[in-house]
Structure formats: C-alpha cells, structure tokens
C-alpha cells in the first residue's frame, strides 16, 4: 500500500513540475516578477549599498542647505518686520513735524507782535501786524490742504453744516444758510469741521 502511494506520487511530481513550467513560461508577468526578484537579490551587493549610502549623504547635505536657507529667510523676515514696526512708530510720532515747522514763523510773529504792543500801545499798528500774521497762518495751512467753506446762501446740508438756530428770513428761501457762526473747513477733499450756522425757516 505504501509502495503504491510513493509510485503514484513519483508519477505526479514530474507532471506538476511540467505544469508549473508551462504556466510560468506562458505568463510573461510571472517571468518578469521572477527577474525582478533576481535583481533585488543583486541589489544587496556591497556596490549597491555604497551607492545608496552616497545618495543618502548627498540628500542629507541638500536638506541641511535648504534648512539653513529657511532659517536665514526667517531671520531676514523677522528683522524686516521689526524694522517696519519701528519706522511706523517713528512716522506716527513725528507725523505733525512738517506742519509744526510751517507754523513756527507764525508763532515767532505773534510773539513779536505781543512784545511790540507792550512797548508801543499803538492800536492801528498792532491791528495791522495781527492782520499780516493771520494771512501768514492761512497761507501755511492752505499749503497743507486746508480750505474754508462758503456756507452763507447755500442750501442746508447736514454733511457740511451744523444748524444751531432756525430763523425767519424774507431774503432767503426755506432751509437755506443765512448766517455763519463758526467757519467750517475741508482738509483736501475731507470735511475737517462742519460750519456752525443759522438756517432759514
């Protein structure tokens, strides 16, 4: 019985090998996989390991270079941000420097007029001096974009005028500015201060 089983297996084994050979020879994918496995075995050779180690070393060097470059960029950006903040603070602190410089001669003239009035109380000369200083002040402010509003005779506009009183008027139509109590000003195109006015009923 045992002998019969062994003979049967001997007969089947060559047939199985032949079947396996036929299936691998007939299937190109299996033969490619077999070749790749052989190549993988070759990759374990010392030359291949040395080549991979050299590639790894080069990759590490490049990674270190990129990391150093990133650190330098971060430091540069941080310095730029700090410098910008400092410049902005300086700009805000001394924003009025130019206009104050323009007004210094006006201040000087006011001081001279006040001192002259103490020494020589001539009202006409004092009045003339104050008039000149006023024109100097108006010129300095107009250079900065200050412009007075013309309100009298204009229709009332709540964006430009602040109505303090309403009065009856036969000369002006209803809802018209009849008198200016305090001047209004533009700074360039922006309303800096509205006019304080009387408006007709």
What does it look like?
α4 runs antiparallel to α5 (123-143). Helix content is 66%, strand content 14%. It starts with a helix and ends with a strand. The chain folds into 3 domains: 2-91, no CATH class; 96-144; 148-201, Head domain of nucleotide exchange factor GrpE (Nucleotide Exchange Factor Grpe, Chain A, domain 2). β4 (185-187) and β5 (190-193) form a beta hairpin. The strands form 2 sheets. The chain has a 3-stranded antiparallel sheet with strand order 1-4-5. It has a 3-stranded mixed sheet with strand order 2-6-3, with no helix packed on it. With 201 residues, it is an alpha+beta fold. The chain has helices at 2-26, 28-43, 46-93, 97-119, 123-143, and strands at residues 146-148, 161-167, 177-182, 185-187, 190-193, 195-200. It contains 5 helices and 6 strands.
Q: How far apart are the termini?
A: 134 Å
The proportion of residues in beta strands is: 5-15%
Strand order of the largest sheet: 1-4-5
The description of the largest β-sheet is:
3 strands, antiparallel
Structural class: alpha+beta
- Taking all Cα atoms into account, the compactness measure Rg is 49 Å
- The stretches of 5 or more residues where confidence is low (pLDDT under 50) are 13-24
**Average residue-wise pLDDT:** 82
Topology:
Elements: H1 2-26, H2 28-43, H3 46-93, H4 97-119, H5 123-143, E1 146-148, E2 161-167, E3 177-182, E4 185-187, E5 190-193, E6 195-200
Parallel strand pairs: 2-6
Antiparallel strand pairs: 1-4, 3-6, 4-5
Helix pairs in contact: 4-5
Task: Give keywords.
201 residues, alpha+beta, Nucleotide Exchange Factor Grpe, Chain A, domain 2, 3 domains, three-stranded antiparallel sheet, 5 helices, 6 strands, elongated
